[in-house]
Structure formats: C-alpha cells, structure tokens
Amino acid sequence: MSHRPLHFHPSLRSLRPLFFLCVLCVLCGSFPLPARAQLGPYEVRLANDRFQAHLLKREKNGDVWLRRLKPDGTPGPQVGYARADILGIRMPRPAFFTNVEALVAAPGTGPLPPQATARAHALLDQYVLQTRAFRDIPGVVSDEALYLKARLQDRQGQHAEALAGYEAIRAKDPPSAFADAARIRAGIDHSRLTNAVEAIECLDGIPLPEEDEALLSDMLFALGDAYVRLENWDRALMTYLSLVVFYPYVGNNEARALSRTLPCYAALGEWESCYRAIQDLLAAAPGTPAAAYAETFAQKHAKQLGSVGEFVDGKRIVADTPATSIAGTTASTNAPSHTQFNAPSDDDEPSGADDVEYPDELL
User: Measured between alpha carbons, how far is 356 from 301 in angstroms, rounded to an integer?
Assistant: First the structure.
C-alpha cells in the first residue's frame, strides 16, 4: 500500500512550519516529564495500595505523575494521580543532612570552613529545587532542607536570609513538622533584626521547647529583648527572671539574664531589687563580662544604689571614689565594648529602650 506525501495548497505553504509546530506541541503534551528528572524510587501510599515509584512532575492542577516500578524492580508505566489520592510518600532522610547539622553545631562563633559551607548550601539548594513541587505531600522532607539551610545561614550570621527561610516554612499549608521550630527561630531572628513587634508575635504564647534547652534559652532572651525595645519593662523582667529561676545552668544563662534585669529594675524604679541583682551577679559570675557590666551599671547609678545599699545591708554599693566598684575592688579599665543599644543618658534615670546597653559578650 502506497502512502501519498502530505502536500499543502500553494496558498498555505507559508503556514507549513506552524502546522508541524502545532502537531509537535500536541504530541509532547500527551506525555509526562521524561524519566531523567525523576526522584526516587520511594514507597507511595494510596488508600488501598502501596508501591515503589519515581516522582516525575506536578501538574498545575495538583496531579502528581509517577513512574511505577514492576514487582521485579524494572520501570513500569507513568501514571498520574490526583493529589488527594496520595496519602504519603516514604522518603528517606538524605545522608548529607547529618553533615549539615554537624556544620551548624560547630563549636564557637568563628567562620565556618568556606568550602564545606559552600558545598552544604549547594546540596541543600539542589534538594529543595528537586522536591519543592511535592513538599505538601506527607513524608517529603523538603521542609527539613529549608530548615537546615536557614540554620546554616543563622550560624553564618546571615539572619535576614535565614528569616526568609523560616517564614517560607511557616507559610506552608498544611503545616510541616518544622513549623513550630521555624516560628521560634523566626522570632529570634526578628528580635536580632530589631523587629520587636514581629518577634513578640512569633514568641509570645508559644509552647516552650523543653526538649531543646539551648533553643529555649535563645527564645526567652529574644523575647525579653523585644519587650525591652517596646519599653514593656514588666514583661521583659519576668522573661529574664524565668531564665534565672528555671534555666540558670544552661550555658551562662544566669549571668546573662541577671545583667539584663538591671535596666528593667532601673526603669521601674525598683532600686532595692536592682541592688540585690547586682550582688547576686557579682557573687555568681565574678571576673566575667557580666560582672564588669554590673560594675559599670552601678557606677552609672551610684546615687540611687548607694542609698539603697545603706538601707539594705548598711553598706554603700559604690564607694566615694568613682574608680571603686561594688565589690570594693578597682573596676576594670578594659570595659567591654557595647553594641545593640545606645548608651544610657547622663541623668542616671533610664528613659526608654534606647538607654539600655549590653556588652557584646552577653548578647
């Protein structure tokens, strides 16, 4: 049987390339994404079936294209499923996540190894790019990759970039297993970036992460600092005191928190409590940056604290000579540098959040 070639009328020959292009588009649209873009294989769970399959692509209407594997493990047909039909995907946690965690947890605050850090970011970016179309399906670990990347950025001091990652996790619907941790860390970064209102919205009222005392401590310090910026001295004081009472032995919480209570007491006019806090601080952490801060604070407010000291224990908290500290020793001439807040005013009376200062070592 002979086949006649396809001819076009002379008046339509100029449209021939367009015709073949349309045919090609129709044919291409009939097939899902090629297997070279696939992920897996992973176990896919439906209401009445479980099977191994590669993830291929996501349609605009939410349908998920899979390549099912045959019982012998060879590739099977490509099949599209409605998102609602897929109950979950058992996606194993990538091994390199553990390496990223180790990098984030590296001791100290110095720079991370640049080559290892760049490699970690590249792997996380690639993984997020490959899995983000499926991140709403239970079992897909795309959000953990986003969370680890934000944690790594925090470790590098890139808090604005990390905040964007945490907010992306928080915006996911339905929430992922990392939603609460992302909310806490977003609040901490908001506080670091002086976004006090946003920090309080994230941190106030959320259950404390009791299983992670380091994160809990950072959360409470950030919340207290945010209250200070809004001059909510009562709430700031209660937040700092909760660290002193319940978590004093986590890191150097006791000294850091006590030092932060001093401006709160001063702003509230509670000079006797301020006096006792300075005594406790000097007894608990002598020779530390927190103690040096307490001595500087005592010198700054010598008038109020001196009279209170005579009433409390018959001693003057500050000697007559300005070079003498509360402890009766010469104050250090190498006072720590101060950041984050402006210096107190010279009238010995705090007038707002801008009058609060903390040494770098206490932040």
Answer: 13
The answer to whether residues 206 and 222 touch, using CB atoms and an 8 Å cutoff, is no
CA distances (Å), origin 74, targets 34, 41, 53, 78: 16, 11, 10, 12
Closest CA to 146 of 157, 130, 72: 130
| Residue 75 DSSP symbol | E
Torsion, Cα 164 170 174 176, to 10 degrees, reads 90
Residue with tokens 């941190």: 203
Q: Mark residue 269 as left, alpha or beta (left: phi above 0; alpha: psi -120 to 50; beta: remaining).
A: left
Query: How far is Cα 143 from Cα 149, in angstroms, rounded to an integer?
Result: 10
Burial 280-297 (b: 16+ CB within 10 A, else e): bbbebbeebbbbbbbbbb
Regions of the chain short of the pLDDT cut 70: 1-38, 309-363
CA dihedral (293, 336, 213, 160) positive or negative: positive
Instruction: Report the length, in residues, of the chain.
Output: 363
Q: Rounded CA gap, 241 and 146, in Å? A: 34
Chain-centroid distance of CA 246 in Å reads 23
Structure tokens at 259: 């030092």
Torsion of CA 145, 149, 155, 157, to 10 degrees: -160
Phi, psi of 168 (to 5 degrees): -65, -40
Write down the pLDDT at residue 248. Answer: 93
Place of tokens 């928190």: 257
Of 139, 137, 21, 36, nearest to 86 (Cα)?
A: 137
223 token code pair: 């919340």
- State pTM to two decimals: 0.76
Alpha-carbon span 182 to 196, nearest angstrom: 17
Distance, in Å, from the CA atom of 64 to the CA atom of 85, rounded to the nearest integer, reads 10
Opening angle at CA 73, ends 67 and 78, nearest 5: 15
Ramachandran angles phi, psi of 88, nearest 5°: 175, 165
pLDDT tens, position by position, 77-99: 999 999 999 999 999 999 999 99
